[in-house]
Amino acid sequence: MIKFFCFFIVSILFSNISYAQEVALSGEEPKEVIVRKIEKNIVELPLCSDEKLVAQTKEFVNEYYKNEQLSNIYDRRRKHFILSNIDKYSPENIENYKSEKTRPVSDVIIDTKINKGVLEENMRLCKNLSQNKEASNVYLLIFSDNKNVKVTIINLKKNHSIEDDTSFIYK
């Protein structure tokens, strides 16, 4: 009975070996090998301190706020802080923006990676240098989108969502 049980256990263990493992254990050369080559096409993106990027961002934000109706003093004050601190940006490490704590920035990064198929290597995250941190933190997510460089402004609205159209094409 014990011999049968041991044989049964050994046969179960070795029945789960894949074909690749069988070939490796037998020492034979495989008949066919499939190799997939994945190319990472790294795109050159503008730096956070790029003057043209900053100018286009200012122009977009000013135009955005012309069309936006601000109903309370908090939103008007926030607009003032954003417009007065939109001149300078520093690069941020995207790795630091992958948790629940860093929402909505992490949401936009994940959405861009999944829905637009953009590699993390082809993204740059910039954060404005603001004195009033909480009220006016604005982020720029710069990435390649169909041979264009697209800039998404995150936190332009107080309650930012992924569906917000706060993007422009960098020219």
Describe this entry's structure for a reader.
The chain is an alpha+beta fold and 171 residues long. The protein is built from 6 helices and 5 strands, in the order H-H-H-H-E-H-E-H-E-E-E. The chain has helices spanning 2-15, 19-26, 51-67, 73-84, 105-115, 133-136; strands at residues 89-92, 123-128, 139-145, 148-154, 167-170. The chain has a 5-stranded antiparallel beta sheet with strand order 1-2-3-4-5. The termini are far apart. Residues 3-13 have low confidence and may be disordered.
Q: What proportion of the residues form beta strands (DSSP E)?
A: 15-25%
Per the principal axes of the C-alpha atoms, what is the gross shape?
A: elongated
pLDDT < 50 runs, ≥5 residues: 3-13
Strand order of the largest sheet: 1-2-3-4-5
**Class of secondary structure makeup:** alpha+beta
Describe, in short, the structure shown.
The chain is of the alpha+beta class. Helices cover 39% and strands 16% of the residues.
